[in-house]
Amino acid sequence: MSLAQQETAGINPRNPHGLGDPNDTTLRKVEVEVLIPKIMRDRARSELCPKEVADFEECCKASSIFMVATCRKQNSALMDCLSHWYKNEAFKEECKAIYLKERAEYRSTGIPKKHRVEKI
Hints:
This is COX assembly mitochondrial protein. The protein is about 70% helix and about 0% strand. It is built from 7 helices and no strands. It has helices at about 5-10, 30-50, 50-65, 65-70, 70-85, 90-110, 115-120. Mean pLDDT is about 85; it is low at about 5-10.
């Protein structure tokens, strides 16, 4: 079946599941302002600032109700580490590439990431 025949039959090879073109790299406002920063935040907390996160969590658990006053040093160290990575353009581009790869996989397969991970 040729490309023209597929399009007249209602099948768009560039949009196999009706979810958008998998090779499209344009980003919507919500992707730029919400979804990519979420990936940045999650990666920074788990991969790049784990010591600061652990120190802050430990202080909060030990201080309970007084954590606002007693954990300022740990909180500022955590915020410094996170803000360093949020301002890093190379890290931002890396997270953008991760997001675009995940979106392309979803658009080409029609299976959300959480379901792809469960099947493996």
